[in-house]
Amino acid sequence: MTPTALLTAQEIPALQYRATRDRFDESWRAPLSTLLGLGRAAGADFVEFFLERVNYISCLAEEDAITTITPRLATGAGVRVFRGKADCYVSTNDLSFGGLKSALEKALSIMGLTLPSLSAYIPEMNLELLRDYATARGKEGWLAECSPIAEMGNILLAANEALRQKAQYIQSRRASYFRDWQEVLVAASDGVFARDIRLTQSVGYSLLCADGSDRASISQRAGDTHNPNFLRAWEYDLEAEAVAESASNMLRADYVESGTYPIIMANEFGGVIFHEACGHLLETTQIERKTTPFMDKKGEKIAHESLTAWDEGLSPNAFGTIDMDDEGMPAQRTLLIENGILKNFLSDRAGSIRTGHPRTGSGRRQGYTYAAASRMRNTYIAPGSYTPEELMASVDKGIYCKKMGGGSVGPTGQFNFAVDEAYLIENGKITKPLKGATLIGDAKEIMNKISMCSQDLGLAAGFCGSVSGSIYVTVGQPHIKVDSITVGGR
Amino acid sequence: MSNISEIAAIAQDKATQLGISKFDVYGSSVDEASVQVDHGDPKQTKASNRSSVMVRVWNSDQTVGVTSTTDVDALGLELALKTAHEASFFGPKEHAPDFSPEATTPIPDHPDAVFPPAEIATLLGKLVGVEQELLEAHPAIVDVPYNGLSQREIERFYLNSEGALRREARSYTSLYLYSKTEQPGKKPRSAGAFRISPSLDQLDIQGCLQEAAEKTISHLEYEKIPTGKYRVVFSPEAFLSLLGAFSNLFNAQSILDNRSLSTPESLGSAIASPLLSVYDDALHTDNIARVAFDDEGTPTRRIALIEQGILANFLHSAGSAKRLQAMPTGHAGIGAKVSVSPHFYHICPGSAPQQTYNLATADNVILIDDLQALHAGVKSLQGSFSLPFDGWLVNQGQRTSIESATVAGDFRELLKAILYVEPECELTPAGVCPRIWVDSLSITGE
């Protein structure tokens, strides 16, 4: 018996690999194995390739016409090289063996590593059997099952007509849809070799109403990651009614008077406050930058004892659900905070190397032009024991934040959120609509002011922009009470 | 990416094979690299070389379909043309876009402003040095959590089946420094600075370093501010970011979509104090990201938007100009639906002020240096904003950092409440602008 013939560096230019162009499959094992070996032979501690193919389409109905249909086709790859705790990421559109090798060589060169001599042996990596979530989970046919262009247009036009029937004082109405089909392959020098197909779809309304100087704009979005028939199943009548009602309420709303108030935040998208004010601060990316007040608080109380929170990639159909992260690690359920005690951080590979916190299947990225980073998936506050009515009854004068807009958190933990639909609470009852409210505060302080959680946990689709681009996430919570918070207004 | 003549030839060849007689292609190729450091050590280095094109195809009914692709070779272009052709049958039948009438208008020949990129090791060496200087600027500065030195070369082109063919290339180098302080018993404070130039040699590194250090140190001693109405001075960067957030005021496509604070009839009306004039000028000599043509091939130019408070013009694509009986202005972004966006603002005093103001002598004025979270706090279709900011309370030139506050108002009212437009402009990435004084804005502090 003789061992497999050894490959030398001088033989690499003559290698004839024939990886398939329209599918990431076993045919990519040999070229990626060779390139990973080349990277290791050059002295890299760790090398990873991320290959991506995207077939995206978006469709927009404005008033009674389809005004935009935008297909986008993209392929690309990124190679990441670690040397100690430092890393380099190089991306390219060129998926040929030569193109990937050039990207690798550039990354090695940037890291101060030189290619092995021509006579040097190249230890090809022994990649695991292809861990193919796309095949194992029956996703191969998803793209073909999605609505074709004509059907997309018809459904959006019908949805926009439903909005016209429900709303008043319409200045502009839009219904939109996108389908983002993504095939990814990860191969790494630790033997990871994994493939997945993701199908992310979203529908939404955007309504602008105006009457004289009174204006109200309301947007609403829903999303899915597992159902090719998602658009067909969209119950747009219900959504149209909710959007129209919100716009109607907000059209005549008074501006909120700025000050400090107790607030009740609605469930579902209300969870954006936890996402921004706490979730981001539990990413190891923030520990690396020392921009989180929680970096040395694991095992300590950082929130009110009524608060327990999770981040996971497992909930069926949720917008942040993934079978594996963008570093090939299966998604998991991660307990972030339990009864106010910080239990875990969200970590990707780089975060694990640089901070020591174990990986949690949270290495995510928008696409091949970004290196993966520790990011959230489905993040939510666990339900409590109260009813929403009990929360409301506990407030003498405060604000009910029914529909949140976007928000952000700064490097010192200061956060802010816009409230798209708010109401004044007086003596435990909702009395009148308010507009122009912004919630501002300090993450560390606010976590101790979430004093009541109700039983009605709900999730909502969202988009999260950060160091590794814009990704799909879920935010969520039950109705919660924040004892006091600064509300910016007029 | 293949050279543009090759792409044009391939596109024409494939279009002919597919029976497509009318198409255009907008594309770009980007070669970039960036470095970050962490206390003297390289952290993450990135490099990228990528290309993409957007193909528009008109079918025999003159409806349009588009497709974008990153596969800029014969196979990729063929697939893109084919997909766009299929999509064209579902394209809008009314107001379908057409070629710009100015796509073949001659443009003055400007040489490409491309400088050779610096070595990564050079970028790292510079950034490590800058980070160290910033950390040494004050004992309270303990981190520069966000930093980056980047260089980028971009080539862009436009071609169409009627023979239009334009290209240009540019390079940029930029530096971003954002430092953070920690002091016992005090909240962390932070501030940053940004510089951009055509090459590393021309980059104002010392200026960026000095600005980041001065701003960060200036926030060390902070105080809460009582909620109320204040006279506010916007820094050039802050005012431009707010103007950018409400750019639908000038956007002809938004107006046609009923998603603007203006209507076609707004032209000629007073929308701001006569003290204010606003221009958009892609060709401004200070604009590092100068472009000579837009995504439809229309030459760019200087456009007056507000002159002495009067709304003077809108920004147009070829399609919006046709619908509003105007000329294209060179502001189109190609797509299934052509978008419109500004290039580079030039803001300057309009009519002569009756009274001048000076921060060195003013009392109880808030100087807003940087507005944050515009994506969340601006309701661009309603005209309102409520935004956190970094800034100072200024009394007789003495600045006291404001701990945490928001500024709120209606942008249209703000434009009319402008008290003073200072004469000296500053260069920012979004344009050139002086400090703008506004009366009586709502500030929420404590």
UniProtKB/TrEMBL annotation, chain A:
Pfam short name (any one): PmbA_TldD_1st
Which part of the chain is the Metalloprotease TldD/E C-terminal domain? 258-489
Question: Metalloprotease TldD/E N-terminal domain spans which residues?
Answer: 47-110
Domain Metalloprotease TldD/E central residues, every copy: 150-250
Molecular functions per Gene Ontology: metallopeptidase activity
Record's InterPro entries? Metalloprtase-TldD/E_C, Metalloprtase-TldD/E_cen_dom, Metalloprtase-TldD/E_N, Peptidase_U62_metallo, TldD/PmbA_N, TldD/PmbA_sf
In the UniProt record, which is one GO cellular component term?
Answer: cytosol
Q: Has the keyword Hydrolase been applied to this entry?
A: yes
Has UniProt tagged this entry with the keyword Protease?
A: yes
Q: What keywords would UniProt list here?
A: Hydrolase, Metalloprotease, Protease
Query: Which Gene Ontology BP terms does the record give?
Result: proteolysis
What family does the Swiss-Prot or TrEMBL record give for this protein?
Belongs to the peptidase U62 family.
Q: What is this protein called?
A: Uncharacterized protein
Species name: Petrachloros mirabilis ULC683
Automatic annotation (TrEMBL), chain B:
Q: Where is the Metalloprotease TldD/E C-terminal domain?
A: 227-445
Metalloprotease TldD/E N-terminal domain ranges (all copies): 24-87
Biological process (GO) annotations held by this record are:
proteolysis
| Single GO MF descriptor | metallopeptidase activity
A GO cellular component annotation here is: cytosol
A Pfam family that this protein carries is PmbA_TldD_2nd
Report the residue ranges that make up the Metalloprotease TldD/E central domain in this protein. 126-220
Family designation:
Belongs to the peptidase U62 family.
- Would you tell me the protein name for this molecule? TldD/PmbA family protein
Organism lineage reads as: Bacteria, Bacillati, Cyanobacteriota, Cyanophyceae, Synechococcales
